[in-house]
Amino acid sequence: MRFFFDGQFTGAPLRAPVQLGRWPADPNRADIREFYTRLLKVIDKPLFHDGTWSVLEVRGAGDWTNTDLLVTAWRKGKDVAVVAANITAHDAQGLIAIGDLPKGDTFEVRDQLSDGVWKWSRQDLDNGLYVRLRSGDAHLFLIKAV
User: Alpha carbon of 89 to those of 5, 21, 29, 70, 82: distances in Å?
Assistant: First the structure.
């Protein structure tokens, strides 16, 4: 089950208690609406309801900021999703240890929160999926064999 608060999809900066009976003006931010439109479409897939969830290891990629990345994965059959988020006030980078991948030598890594698409070889992914995120940014990757 997922919980969202009233106004979250439009960028409301405050969560007004329901007992208050009144709410601040709705900012109606287009960027927030677009983000939630993309997110809700993706998390409606069976992978996110019936899949197995795990936390992934993030190794260093030249500095110490890998510890500032929170990375999780969902797996169901040949479907793999990886979510990476920078939860700090500065840029962070790291190499994500994805682990088991479906059969194949080449993989398409598609970010569902943007229009980014990358092709990676199995060998490169075995070394780690490189990510660099600004403060507060995230990726939601769907990984498929091609």
Answer: 24, 34, 22, 14, 22
Sheet holding 129-133, edge to edge: 58-59, 92-96, 129-133
C-alpha–C-alpha distance, residues 39 and 123, integer Å: 29
pLDDT of the chain along its 146 residues, tens only? 677 767 778 777 777 777 777 767 767 788 888 888 899 999 999 999 999 999 999 999 989 999 999 999 999 999 999 999 999 999 999 999 999 899 999 999 999 999 899 999 999 999 999 999 999 999 999 999 99
Residue 53 has which token pair?
């969830």
